[in-house]
Write a structure and sequence with these properties.
single chain, 243 residues, alpha/beta, 6 helices
Length: 243
Amino acid sequence: MDLQIYEIKKMDLRDGIVVDGFPSVGLVSSIVANYIIDRLNLEQIAIVDSVYFPALALIRNGVPHSPVRIYGGKIKENLKIAVFVSEFQIPSTLLKPLASLMLDWAEEQKIDIVVTPEGLIQEEKKEKVNVYGVASTEYAKKKIPPGVLEFGEGVITGVTGVLLTEGRKRGTDVIALLAEAHPDYPDARAAARIVEILNEMMGEVKIDPQPLYQEAEKIEKNIAQLREQAAKVKKVPKDYIYA
């Protein structure tokens, strides 16, 4: 499969963390990835390109960007982080090659651990969003913070599923963090819970999750209003509807 990483800037990421930001249930991965990039002021260090990617350019602040990008930064002496991020849904034929490419790159960079946030379908709103964890190795399992529930049985699809199985095959350290998320809209609340877990993994560096919780409230209020309006429309007698 024709996939290639083009380096824009050289950066020492040895013993760092790589975060997967490809779209998932409730767009949890994408929200987490973009939030980390923004809050930690990471800079673009590479792009991933393929003839199979959509023919488009993402424009931000007048600057064109590739559909798949890698951002990185040295936050403190003992914390380096890189983030793969994309706004488009990965075709199923590219899932395995893309996950393998990510792990190849992580190994070349001598990354300590790969973290893949993911949404776990949960249609009912809960006051507390549960986060479940799965690890590809015993070393990675020990890195999962207390309070993250064990994901004992089930199926994990997409890039996250491939990263876990490929990580186990290679002996590469991968952690999947699965937050309960609503599948029908961007779930900022689930993303905020993942950020809280990542804070525990990053030690002294803390990313404030409150703006995400505030965004979640806005989204939920908007959805509630739309549902209320839809319910009113359903109650309008047909005699009052004119072509």
